[in-house]
Design brief:
The protein has helices at about 10-45, 50-85, 90-100, 120-149. By secondary structure, it is mainly alpha-helical. Helix 1 (about 10-45) runs parallel beside helix 4 and helix 2 (about 50-85) runs antiparallel to helix 4. The chain is elongated, with a radius of gyration of 19 Å. It starts with 9 loop residues before the first helix and ends with a helix.
Length: about 150
């Protein structure tokens, strides 16, 4: 027999969600600033000279990959919360729900039960803001490399 899901007061659910969102914002900010620091200190010298046509695209590819992994880790963090709170029977289902919600795709075939469903909009806003920051950062990288070529 499966364990019943935990019933927490709505204000505690909001607190869990807001704390997780804040932590993920901090992580995302740290990743972007670390990549920015590395690029500011190293990209200028490797995007000059005869190898620039190789290293420029390579830098962009690495930035894409790092941000992709960052977004996967953020989705996994939300999924872990929902799975540990027994909202979904498997981590895979929880990750699927989180992936469709954090991107605002929102298929709706899996849904959270009350009081956890209040985190759906928080998770979507969290994801959209982080995807927006990643997009702006990638645009900046591409622009800086394009200008230096």
């Amino acid at each position: 027999m499966s364990e019943k899901p935990r019933r927490l007061p709505t204000h505690k659910v909001y607190l869990f969600g807001l704390l997780l969102a804040a932590g993920l914002f901090a992580m995302h900010t740290w990743v972007i600033f670390e990549m920015g620091w590395v690029l500011m200190h190293h990209a200028a010298r490797i995007t000059k000279g005869p190898e620039a046509h190789v290293f420029g695209p390579l830098i962009i590819l690495v930035a894409f990959f790092i941000l992709f992994l960052t977004h996967l880790a953020e989705a996994a963090a939300w999924a872990l919360l929902f799975w540990r709170m027994k909202e979904f029977p498997t981590f895979s289902e929880s990750l699927y729900f989180t992936g469709t919600s954090i991107t605002a795709l929102g298929y709706g075939d899996l849904v959270l039960r009350p009081p956890w469903r209040v985190l759906g909009p928080i998770m979507a806003i969290n994801g959209l803001l982080m995807f927006g920051c990643s997009t702006a950062f990638l645009f900046l990288i591409i622009q800086k490399i394009w200008v230096s070529l």
